[in-house]
Automatic annotation (TrEMBL):
InterPro entries: DUF3397, UCP030092. It comes from the Bacteria. Pfam families: DUF3397. Keywords: Membrane, Transmembrane, Transmembrane helix. The chain crosses the membrane at residues 6-26, 38-57, 63-83, 103-122. The keyword Amino-acid biosynthesis does not apply. This is DUF3397 domain-containing protein.
Length: 125
């Protein structure tokens, strides 16, 4: 049973687009508004895109970037908290975290697509 769970998690880390699609369609089934389904898919699949990019960089280029990703995430969060404090004088950490999380989704989705294409090109050369 433990092996099955490990294989499912490994598959979702390898192909996070499948997870995003499944979450999106399940959310549409349970939530009527499309935007809630999109947000649910983004929120639940971002961590898998981050892990997939880290693993692809590690396996393809032998780069260990976990620390860099964490520092980038914290710097981006600090930047948005600072900007909230500067413009609104009221800091909402949850709002800043959601914004950083969505930016990370977009960034790591693009990185994932680019790295998959680069990996395919490297494999065939």
């Amino acid at each position: 049973m433990v092996d099955v769970i490990i294989y499912i998690i490994a598959f979702l880390m390898t192909v996070p687009m499948f997870l995003t699609t499944v979450i999106y369609f399940l959310s549409i089934k349970f939530h009527q508004p499309v935007w809630k389904a999109v947000h649910a898919a983004v929120n639940w699949s971002t961590i898998f895109y981050i892990m997939a990019v880290i693993l692809i960089l590690d396996m393809t280029f032998d780069l260990h970037v976990i620390g860099i990703v964490l520092v980038f995430f914290l710097l981006l969060l600090g930047l948005f908290i600072y900007l909230q404090w500067k413009f609104n004088t009221e800091v909402k950490v949850t709002k800043a975290f959601k914004l950083v999380w969505r930016i990370c989704f977009l960034l790591f989705l693009i990185l994932y697509i680019c790295l998959v294409i680069i990996g395919i090109i490297i494999e065939f050369m």
